[in-house]
Amino acid sequence: MGEILVFLEQREGQLKQSSFEAMGAGRRLAEKVGSTSGGLNAILIGNNIKNLAETVSRYGAQKVLLADHPSLQKYNNRLYTHILAREAQKRETIAVLFSATAMGRDMAPRLAARLGGPLLTECISLNIADGFLEATRLVYAGRLVATVKSTVSKFQVATLRPNIFTPAQPVSRGVLQYAPAEVEILDVSTVPTEPFTVLKDIIYTTGVGARCNVPLPDIAEARVVVAGGRGMGGAEYFKILEELADLLGGVVGASRAAVDAGWKPQDLQVGLTGKTIAPELYIACGISGSAQHLAGIITARHIVAINKDPEAPIFSVADLGLVGDLFEIVPELIKRLRTAGNRK
Amino acid sequence: MLLGHSYYPVNIIVCVKQVPSTETTPRPRPEPPFIDTGGLTWVVNPFDEYAIEEAIRIKERRGRGEITVVSFGPTLAREVLLGALAMGADKALHILGETHLGIDSYAIAFLLAQAIKGRPFDIILCGKEAVDDQNGAVGIELAELLNIPHVPVITKLEIDATGMATANRQIEGGTEILECPLPALFTCQKGLNLPRYPSLPGIMRAKKKPYEIVSATDLSPQKISKSEVRVSVKDLSFLPSRKAGRKLQASAAEMVEELMKFLHEETKII
Ligand SMILES: Cc1cc2nc3c(=O)[nH]c(=O)nc-3n(C[C@H](O)[C@H](O)[C@H](O)COP(=O)(O)OP(=O)(O)OC[C@H]3O[C@@H](n4cnc5c(N)ncnc54)[C@H](O)[C@@H]3O)c2cc1C
Ligand SMILES: Nc1ncnc2c1ncn2[C@@H]1O[C@H](COP(=O)(O)O)[C@@H](O)[C@H]1O
């Protein structure tokens, strides 16, 4: 039986945290498939990223496949998919795993369709039995959970929702069966010279809209998200949420009502028509908790709601609910966090 | 397909899906189609509305063009096709067949590709994802099966006179600006435009517009339920609901005291 292949995502030479989650899931699958398989390999694509290959070689893969070339500096769907499809075919891969990031969501369907393989998207659990992947995933605006099974045991492709799976840990030197992975340099001479699409620019922005050089944590990746809704009453009042997010090492998000009012940009919207997030902590301020909003936060580890309406539906999913005026509670919380921080 | 310097994209295909309104909650059932379809309100997939609107705007800017809306679905899907025609699409192609979660993204993309192949197109627009199966895959798989470029999750699209498209795409912490030649496929995200409501004359005209029906089994004889389906549904159930936790109603200072404890002890954030 073939191998499990995990795509490790990097941008600007930075490995995505969620790639380690995919590695962790890949390792568990490979263990289940057992020693008859080709085991677990990881693949890295980019330019000047040999150092990353060294880093990931200690995370439990047998091999780290490295496609390192100037033409691969920036993500390009056609070139990257070409390399993945070629390697998957060469190695009789049974499953390719991606984290469900913008890049993973872009590439996985293209790869699956090219190889004619099954595609399981946005998995929140993943298993393998007799070579067939089985996953659970949220459907119907996040209200139902489907158990889906692939019907073909070759070239299966799965994307894993970030922040759900336990990340792989580096394996210590002492453990024999997990010797550091061999880094295999891939031939990139046959990569198509014509990219379908040409990346003209990437504009990374801070939460307040200013341009910056590297990607800042996205609401979909942050450990803490502090979100504001219509109850914020205006763009200028989000300042207190930014302060709070800063103190908690998190980022600010918004409900659709707040985005549609023009208080926050679309890429900070949480929910069905915004982003689905699974942070360690979600704090909803002045958000009622509509079904479409909950669709985006239902996989959050902890939910705190601050709302002056005791009947607000958000309280039905909150681990801790504070009934009251957010303009009293949030500043009080900021004050307390400051004193606590100073004492340390 | 390039007509010298005065290239005009003339043929736009928009893929639309009928889905249960997100205001209603489908009840799971143990067998296919796995949901109780009774009592549901059906609407056009919200992301597909952005696709329809964008097609109309491209056509309006160019001053010419033809928009075909395509949907694979049961008889009921006629409603969403008529809705698109009422907004301003020119013709409808209805791939008639049962679709539910049991039919995976590859099978749907396969059918759409079969139906679209051989028809002229310069631009294909899809939604970012369907809010029922939440795959976000059909559009991209369709682009692969038609061997054309795609840009997913776009919030801006411009087509120049030479047939070059420039699209903004959301990524983590930023926006990519991508260029690609037509024909190409784009999947549409909120923020791209504000979909219009159909006008009354629009609704009247819709019924007279060309409406073609092909059967899914003709496009994929006996295959649709077998070899084209790569993913099957084993079970569908309500998400175990989160338990409501503690709800505090006290002075700000007292509640924040509790919250500090919660942040420290349970979330370990501080
Ligand atoms: C197809 C579709 C997709 C959608 N997608 C999304 C989505 O992705 N994300 C999303 O968020 N919504 C989405 N919506 C919209 C959703 O239905 C709600 O309209 C929206 O979530 C409401 O936002 P809100 O909670 O900020 O505002 P409201 O529902 O107006 O709630 C405001 C809350 O603030 C509280 N409040 C007011 N002042 C204060 C104060 N001083 N202190 C404390 N509390 C206060 C009020 O008690 C109230 O509960 C979608 C809708 C549809 C139909
Ligand atoms: N049955 C269908 N008929 C027409 N278009 C579809 C169908 N299913 C999906 N699509 C298109 O593909 C997009 C993504 O769907 P999905 O991959 O199911 O999330 C939708 O927004 C539609 O544009």
Description:
The complex is a heterodimer of chains A (344) and B (270). Chain A has 8 helices and 18 strands. With 344 residues, chain A is an alpha/beta fold. Chain A has helices at residues 17-33, 50-56, 77-90, 102-115, 239-247, 256-260, 291-294, 326-343; strands at residues 4-8, 10-11, 14-15, 40-46, 63-68, 95-99, 119-129, 132-139, 144-150, 156-160, 182-185, 198-205, 211-212, 224-228, 251-254, 281-285, 302-307, 320-323. Chain A is globular, with a radius of gyration of 22 Å. Chain A has 2 domains: 4-185, 3-Layer(aba) Sandwich (Rossmann fold), CATH 3.40.50.620; 209-343, TPP-binding domain (Rossmann fold, 3-Layer(aba) Sandwich). Chain B is α/β, with parallel strands linked by helices. Chain B has a single domain, classed as HUPs (Rossmann fold), CATH 3.40.50.620. Chain B has a 9-stranded mixed beta sheet with strand order 11-10-9-12-8-1-6-7-13, with helices on both faces. In chain B, strands 2-5 form a two-stranded antiparallel ribbon. In chain B, strands 3-4 form a two-stranded antiparallel ribbon. Classes of the chains: A alpha/beta (344), B alpha/beta (270). At the A-B interface, helix 4, strand 7, strand 8, strand 9 and strand 12 of A face helix 3, helix 4, strand 9, strand 10 and strand 11 of B. Strand 9 of chain A pairs antiparallel with strand 14 (231-238) of chain B, so a sheet runs across the interface. The site of flavin-adenine dinucleotide has 28 residues of chain A, from helix 6, helix 7, strand 17 and helix 8.
The biggest beta sheet of chain A is recorded as: 9 strands, mixed
CATH fold-type name of the largest domain in chain A: Rossmann fold
The fraction of residues assigned to DSSP E strands of chain B is: 25-35%
The separation of the N and C termini of chain B measures 60 Å
How large is the share of residues in beta strands of chain A? 25-35%
Secondary structure class of chain A reads: alpha/beta
Query: Which percent range fits the helix content of chain B?
Result: 25-40%
Which stretches of chain B are poorly predicted, pLDDT < 50 over at least 5 residues?
Answer: 1-5
